[in-house]
Amino acid sequence: MSPSAGRRFRAYTSKHLDELTARAGLGEDERLAVRAVATVLPFRVNSYVIDELIDWDAAPDDPIYRLVFPQADMLPAEDVARMADLLRQDAPRKEINAAANEVRARLNPHPAGQMDLNVPKVDGQDPLEGMQHKYRETVLFFPKQGQTCHAYCTYCFRWAQFVGEPDLKFASGEVDHLVRYLKENPQVTSVLFTGGDPMIMGEGVISKYIEPLLEVDTLESIRIGTKALAYWPQRFVTDPDADDTLRLFEKVEASGKNLAFMAHFSHPNELEPELVQEAVKRIRSTGAVIRTQAPLIRTINDDPKVWERMWRTQLRMGMVPYYMFVERDTGPQDYFAVPLARAYEIFRDAYKNVSGLARTVRGPSMSATPGKVCVDGVTEIAGEKVFMLHFIQARDPELVGKPFFAKYDEKAAWLFDLEPALGATHFPYEEAPPADVSALVDPARA
Fold first, then answer.
1. C-alpha closest to that of 333 among 386, 429, 412
2. Contact 54, 65 (CB under 8 A)
3. CB 133 within 8 A of CB 139
4. Is tRNA-binding a UniProt keyword of this protein (predicted)?
5. What is the residue-level pLDDT of the chain in tens, covering all 446 positions?
6. Alpha carbon 87 to its chain's center
7. Among 207, 229, 271, 330, which is most buried by a count of CB atoms within 10 Å?
8. Dihedral angle of Cα 399, 402, 403, 404, to the nearest 10 degrees
């Protein structure tokens, strides 16, 4: 087992950046530019990632290094130069934060209507903090103690959770509000605990959120969205509450509900340590199902061989490949985004080389305002080259599974970059989109 297995967790933050980027061989000006980016976007990594996952001989080009360390060109050059000047002048923290907030405001901190369209309300007026209800069957819950991670991914679409600005943060400690909402809306059959990372919480905390849900008869599944298997597998093997956490998972299964462990793996190198393999075995022994997902990220995993290797390895380990996502329209999207045409090629070239058991994976999928839109291919219809698309999930349930078409655009990287094809004047979701989450409540109670 890894030498890191029994070590205590140690986090590295922006105050360690200069030392760590020097280890990667960056010069003084390059290190300052990286620190400038880190004044705007969050940085956090831990000793396991540093010691076990990053190949420092290959840094700064190592994929795991790029996954967790800010890059100097992730933001517009003028913004980086401005923040670097403030750091060089040793400007007051208040001035640096004010400038950083100006940049953040231009980065679409809450994409896909998270603040405006997805937050459920009591009696149609008072918002339920820390909850999102975008799809009829599923509610997202953001436990307040789980709104950080063992390490931050540079591409993360939830970066706004981690920058210390309360107005940008989703969180709730009121599980009773969640239980009441579920009982009032029996059409909701699944709850997804998300963040941040719920598995940053100890068993004594996370059980207080999960156990009350076991008494909700209409709930069929509980999901935990987490990167802990990749960034801190000790959580399930050697941490003091590892065994208690696994017993909690067993309790969920014993209650008759499905526990879906939504594991984020961005690169196959994250699957190699023995500690990860042991953690996967222990979680699966509880009856929980581990489903894997990740976005397609330029410079990190934009290669079909990387995805093929990742899906094959996950299958051998007993996990279920679930999603390839398209990088969302937030944060440094322009830096990480892969055009949809290329994304489809990467997906197809990996998909065709794996067995049917690994073809459970779906994608490339865009989690956009109207729903999860999958790029099914590129073809020609009546002399027009088009993208074939369909909704895997939708704000309007009537759209799920229905195909639609967009004009082929080799530069398009997101749904809203596309135009209707074949003479259509609008996309199906533009006909009568629900105004907000109120459209998802139980029709019998509407």
1. 412
2. yes
3. yes
4. no
5. 565 666 788 999 999 999 999 999 999 999 999 999 999 988 999 999 999 999 999 999 999 999 999 999 888 999 999 999 999 999 999 999 999 988 888 876 655 444 556 777 766 556 788 889 999 999 999 998 988 899 988 877 555 655 455 544 555 678 899 999 999 999 999 999 998 899 999 999 999 999 999 999 999 999 999 999 999 999 999 999 999 999 999 999 999 999 999 999 999 999 999 999 999 999 999 999 999 999 999 999 999 999 999 999 999 999 999 999 998 766 667 788 899 999 999 999 999 999 999 999 999 999 998 999 999 999 999 999 999 999 999 999 999 999 999 999 999 999 999 999 999 999 999 975 455 555 565 544 43
6. 30
7. 229
8. -30
CA dihedral 275, 276, 281, 285 (to 10 degrees): 100
User: Sign of the C-alpha dihedral, residues 415, 169, 145, 40?
Assistant: positive
Ramachandran area for residue 124 (φ above 0: left; ψ -120 to 50: alpha; else beta)? left
Amino acid at 70: P
Detail the DSSP E strand segments found in 16-112: 45-46
Q: Which residue carries 């209800």 as its tokens?
A: 133
Query: Any residues with CB less than 8 A from the CB of 418 and at least 6 apart, and which?
Result: 340, 387, 406, 407, 409, 412, 427
Task: Give the H or E element holding residue 139.
Answer: strand 138-141
d(CA 52, CA 74): 25
How far is the C-alpha of 416 from the C-alpha of 397, rounded, in Å? 20
Strands (E) across 185-335 are located at: 190-193, 221-226, 258-264, 289-296, 320-326
Report the amino acid identity of residue 141: F
Closest C-alpha to 266, from 315, 228, 230, 313: 230
- Other residues' Cβ atoms within 10 Å of the Cβ of residue 429: 21
**Token pair 């004010």: residue:** 98
Q: Residue 19 burial by CB count (10 A; 0-12/13-18/19+): exposed, middle or buried?
A: exposed
DSSP assignment of 97-109, as one string? Answer: HHHHHHHHHTT-S
